[in-house]
Structures are given as C-alpha cells and as structure tokens.
Design brief:
The complex is a heterodimer of chains A (114) and B (117).
Chain A: E1 4-7, E2 10-14, E3 19-25, E4 30-38, E5 45-51, E6 56-59, E7 62-67, E8 72-77, E9 86-94, E10 102-104, E11 108-113
Parallel strand pairs in A: 2-11
Antiparallel strand pairs in A: 1-3, 3-8, 4-5, 4-9, 6-7, 7-8, 9-10, 9-11
Chain B: E1 4-7, E2 10-13, E3 19-25, E4 31-37, E5 44-49, E6 56-57, E7 65-66, E8 76-78, E9 87-94, E10 107-108, E11 112-116
Parallel strand pairs in B: 2-11
Antiparallel strand pairs in B: 1-3, 3-8, 4-5, 4-9, 5-6, 7-8, 9-10, 9-11
Classes of the chains: A mainly beta (114), B mainly beta (117).
Chain lengths: 114, 117
C-alpha cells in the first residue's frame, strides 16, 4: 500500500533555532517528492520539489533532502522565525497514470515560540 | 502568490440545504482539483478535471458533484448537505505538463471551511 508517513506529528521550537522534519514513503513507482507549507486556514504552498536524481534542494532557509534508496526525505529549517509556524506536508507522486497520483502525508505541525 | 480563489471562505448551514462552493483561477491552468481535509489529517482528492467538460471522481468517495464549463471555473455542489460533510474543502489547479513523467506543481486556493449543523 502506497503511504507517506511524517514525523513528528507536532513540534515546538524557540525562535532562531533549527529543526528537521521527517518523511518516509512507500510510494512506487516514484516520480517526485514535494514539501508544502500550509498556514492555518490557508491552502498549501509548494516549498521544494525533488525528482529521483536529486538529493538536496534549498529554498531560502528551507533545505530538503531525499534518499530514494531508503525512501526517506527531510526538511530542515534554519534560524526559525515566528512565521514558520505552520503545517508542513510531504507529498509524493507516482508515475502510474497521466495524472500522476499524489500521496499526502498528514503533516507536521510546527509552532515557533518567541 | 497563486491566483486561485475560493468563496465563501467559511460557511455554516443547516442539514438538507443545497450549497455550491466556488473556485476560480486566472492562471489559465487546464487541470483543476478538489480536496477534502479534516483537521490533522491528510488531503483527500475528491474530484479533478483535465479541462473544459472533463470531470473525474477522485480517490475519496464524495456525494458532491462538480462541473467545468469554463477553464477558469470549477464549482463543487452538494445537493443536500449533512453533518458528515463538515470539513475543509481545498481547490487547486496546475498546468498541463504532458512532456514530463510526473505531475506539475499544484497551486491551492485558501479553502472553504464548511460546517453543517
């Protein structure tokens, strides 16, 4: 069964600290993996996308890594800010259809305290 | 910031009412999607469309229906709302990307939070 599991479920850190969120997946065949940020009451916004051949991708203070062999990805947030408080969702897509089916994780709820 | 809009943002209605959730995008995207998301849970695809006059059911069974008469507009309708329909509904769109192996980036609207009493 194709699945995407994220950990931790929730995380509280102090402003200025770094943190790492984890994503494990069993989706096969694999096409790409995205990290989305979803603010409370808003729709998700894409942060990074990585294909099979890419193992790291940065977007400002966000750095995503991908290990396609172990089917693991991480999202590292550097020097956290209050505005980083949000749910971070890992999304994996397969190549099984023209639409390219997406598998969503449940997200990690990050809270940054001042 | 994506140019995709949803109205209303919040809706509280009684059981049995007919409702239509509006979604429109100004990016000229062919593909559009509706997702349902409960608090702390993953997004579930309930409908999608490849283009005008194309509609397909998603992975999660839903009593809602959709239409795609215009490229920019993808409304979702519930003929008779029930408390079990209480949820957040997210609309998304993406460009056609026929040359690549995987799906293109989806741009999401702000969502409609529906509460059925």
């Amino acid at each position: 069964k194709n699945q995407v599991e994220q950990s931790p479920q929730s995380l509280i850190i102090l402003e200025g600290k770094n943190c790492t969120l984890q994503c494990n997946y069993t989706v096969s065949p694999f096409s790409n993996l995205r990290w989305y940020k979803q603010d409370t009451g808003r729709g998700p916004v894409s942060l990074t996308i990585m294909t099979f051949s890419e193992n790291t991708k940065s977007n400002g203070r966000y750095t995503a890594t991908l290990d396609a062999d172990t089917k693991q990805s991480s999202l590292h947030i550097t020097a956290s800010q209050l505005s980083d408080s949000a749910s971070y969702i890992c999304v994996v897509s397969d190549r099984g259809s023209t639409l390219g089916r997406l598998y969503f994780g449940r997200g990690t709820q990050l809270t940054v305290w001042p | 910031e994506a140019d995709i809009y949803q109205t209303p943002r919040y809706l509280v209605i009684g059981t049995g009412k007919k409702i239509t959730l509006e979604c429109s995008q100004t990016m000229g995207h062919d593909k559009m999607y509706w997702y349902q998301q409960d608090p702390g849970m993953e997004l579930h695809l309930i409908h999608y469309s490849y283009g005008v006059n194309s509609t397909e059911k998603g992975d999660l069974s839903s009593e809602s229906t959709v239409s795609r008469i215009r490229t920019e507009h993808f409304p979702l309708t519930l003929e008779s709302a029930r408390p079990s329909h209480t949820s957040q509904y997210l609309c998304a769109s993406s460009e056609s990307n026929l040359g690549l192996a995987g799906p293109d980036t989806q741009y999401f609207g702000p969502g409609t939070r529906l509460t059925v009493l």
